[in-house]
Amino acid sequence: MEPVVRLVDVERVYRLGEVELKALAGVSLEVPHGQLVAIVGASGSGKSTLMNVIGCLDRPTAGRYFLDGKDVSTLGRAQLAGVRNRTLGFVFQSFNLLARTSAVENVELPLVYGGLGGKERRRRATEALVQVGLGDRLDHQPTQLSGGQQQRVAIARALVNRPRVLLADEPTGALDSKTSVEVMTLLVGLVATGITVILVTHSHEVAQVAQRVLTMRDGKIIADQLQQPRSPGEVAA
Amino acid sequence: MNPLEILRVAIRALLRNTLRSFLTALGIIIGVAAVIAMVAIGEGAKAQVEAQFAAMGTNLLIVMPGSAMAGGARGGFGSQPTLTYDDLRAIQTEVPSVALAAPVLRMQAQLMSEDQNWSTTVQGSTPDYLAIRSWRVLRGVTLTDSDIDSGAKVMLLGQTAAEKLFGPSADPIGQLVRVRNVPFQVVGLLERKGQSPMGQDYDDTAIVPQSTFRARLAPSLGNFIGGNIFVSVKEQAETGKAQQQVTALLRDRHRIGRGGDDDFSIRNMAEVASAQQEGAQTLSTLLASIAAVSLLVGGIGIMNIMLVSVTERTREIGIRMAVGASPGAILAQFLAESLVLALLGGLVGVALGTFTASQLSVQFGWVLKLRPDVIALASGFSALVGVGFGLYPALKASRLDPIAALRFD
Q1: Which ipTM did the prediction report?
Q2: DSSP-assigned letter for residue B217
Q3: What is the pLDDT of residues B170-189, one digit of tens each?
Q4: Rounded to an integer, what distance in angstroms lies between the CA atom of residue B299 and that of residue B304?
Q5: Of the candidates B200, B228, B262, which is a domain's last residue?
Q6: In b/e form, how buried is each residue of B275-289, taking b as 16+ CB within 10 angstroms?
Q7: B245 and B143 within one domain
Q8: In chain A, what residues touch B20 (CB-CB under 8 Å)?
Q9: Of the spans A10-24, A121-135, B24-38, which averages the highest pLDDT?
Q10: Is residue B335 part of a domain?
Q11: In chain B, is it the N or the C terminus that has fewer CB atoms within a 10 Å radius of its CB?
């Protein structure tokens, strides 16, 4: 079966005046459908750049990237926006919810850009919030929610358009250990529903929940290990 | 995203910062209101000038006698009677473009009714004068040719003079008024004429037959006319031509050779009127352009706020892009915001401008002259300002790099 994510010799070079900075120096990677992958590495190792490229927020300067079998490395900005909307979901360390906007409206956002009508949008957003256990917080604004709840709203938002791949960048970085477990349990649970989850973290503990760990250094994958995943509860303990 | 959806998102974003949105729109509100009110004021002033000249008569020539010369000191026009009653008859009969001509003799005199007195301008003239000025008698009868021939002691009163002599609502017809101890019988009350373009009250006057005026009131000048000749021209377009013809006729009659100065002068009221109207038009244009500048400033206000807004909401833009907003969708959203601001501002501005114009017209006693084309133009321009000045901030927003935008604090 075609892997969901396939990178072939991907490079991402930043030009800072005269200096060239190779954030990704030839990365090749295949992620099969339904896998939970953790990308670990120190800051500056290129793991964020890799996630941005996989998330279609950034384009490789060399190499090819096939997402769900389709070459997306040559697409324009507007087309990439469409790909992000239909195929990808994002969860960020700082939640990135729209302020002064209710939970359900935050979750609706991808559907707005997907061109879905108001009623259907509300129905699906509500469904997604129920799925993450926030069915009773639909009309709460981000400031009225705890960190863990905000992150769950963000996960609902990432899920609402039924993405193929969910990208999580340090999803527990801003949470205490108890809510971290809740959020991680939720993400692990998603894999069971057939979503591929790619987790970026600097923490080796968090990475233990993954089936596969990619270690990065200097813009390259230096280790690619399959492992027996541990449950989030065990990891925290 | 359909347009309705874009509009909804834009309005929500504006409502999130109500005070700021209002202040931004205020620039447009004031601009549009100023344009509408200023144009209305200009138009009102123009209409006022036009009305004043209509009261005066625009197909009117006033022939004034020339200057006296005493030992090298030249008096002004009118200081020496040079026009004769023969000149008047010649103008009446020999110039084809002239409709009517009448002598107008004037003096300041004290009028006395039974229990009041009032100093006013007494004019001696003929029935033609009233026809030239298209001045009708409201009550009673007008002067007749037989009044002139017989030198009858009859008088027409203007509204102001009648009020001063007999009280506001009294009927002066049949009453006696003495001028220099000569008793005149009031036979007619003139309709209200209003103000001259120079602000003089036309209605503060009494008109008597010119023959009576010459025989009883003024010192005799023989065949010379102790005043002006009012001439009405058949077609308003011919006033210039008539002026030349009358000038040629009088120069010929007064035997003024080539190169000699006229011993009379002719004032063409159509020229004066158009000059005044031009002045009013200039004022109108000036006011409108100042107002248009304020509309422009309002537009710059929108641009300023939208730029601030884009910077402030960089992270929001990043989030929207991450979940699938295309650059076009971001562009549309910010354009819609500035457009809504400008259009709402324009709408309120139209209302405010119309209100202000109506208040001002009451204040100045002018007719309310709202120009629908100006209202449409001002609203259209405010929309244009919204799009025009919103475009750059919206483009800036749409060109943001999603990664940098998401990381922005």
Answers
A1: 0.94
A2: I
A3: 888 999 999 998 999 999 99
A4: 9
A5: B262
A6: ebeeebbebbeebbe
A7: yes
A8: none
A9: A121-135
A10: yes
A11: C
